[in-house]
Amino acid sequence: xxxxxxxxxxDSYEGQEVNITCSHNNIATNDYITWYQQFPSQGPRFIIxxxxxKVTNEVASLFIPADRKSSTLSLPRVSLSDTxxxxxxxxxxxxxxxxLIFGKGTTLSVSS
Amino acid sequence: GAVVSQHPSRVIxxxxxxxxxxxRSLDFQATTMFWYRQFPKQSLMLMATSxxxxxxxxxxxxxxxxxxxxxxxxxxxxxxxxxAHPEDSSFYICSARVPGTGxxxxxxxxxxxxxxx
Lengths: 112, 117
Known about the structure:
The structure holds two protein chains of two kinds. Chain A is mainly β. In chain A, 0% of the residues lie in helices and 48% in strands. Chain A has no helices and nine strands. In chain A, the strands form two sheets. Chain A has a five-stranded mixed β-sheet with strand order 1-9-8-3-4, with no helix packed on it. A four-stranded antiparallel β-sheet of chain A has the order 2-7-6-5, with no helix packed on it. The radius of gyration of chain A is 13 Å and the shape is globular. In chain B, the strands form two sheets. In chain B, strands 2, 4, 5, 6, 9, 10 and 11 form a seven-stranded mixed β-sheet that branches. In chain B, a hairpin with a 6-residue loop joins strand 4 and strand 5. The relative contact order of chain B is 0.33. The model of chain B has no long low-confidence stretch (mean pLDDT 93). The A-B interface holds A 32, 34, 41-46, 49, 87, 89, 91, 93, 96-105 and B 4, 32, 34, 36, 43-46, 49, 91, 93-95, 97, 102-111, 113.
């Protein structure tokens, strides 16, 4: 499993765009990049997943450069309710259904 | 979307007692479920993989005789913390994957807060 590295914490204000970058230098060819969000005292929630280039859904965008050694989760116009821990995970597509291994995550604090 | 529930959401027990936590997939069948433990300000730590109809697979360092896992049906996995001690106090979370969804997409339960006095 490719190891991931994220900033421990980030601060932002309401209405700003937040970009959280994750490094995964040893990512393998079959690996996909997935991001989860966790609020205090709740289970994590899937946000977005991608393999390369850009993926966008109603919640966030995921940017993956050509070398795939990093990825950036972009949250547009954050609100107070986006305060949470964000986890970047890398997993093998051929092992779908196996357990997810979580790193330390990034604690995002949004202020008014 | 798929829903995973856990019961109870919160439990307080005395040291030495056993506590059972249930994890249910409400609208899908899960042949495999996962159990995690999370201490305050820390990340999720995988404890074991629960397989329907067979023995669970435990991660290194997790005592299988202390954390009993039973996956008797396609919608229910249980985690029993036997002879609980204060150091077992933690947030226990289960998850499951829905066939046909994203490769690394799993659905997590709301978690169970265990406090051992």
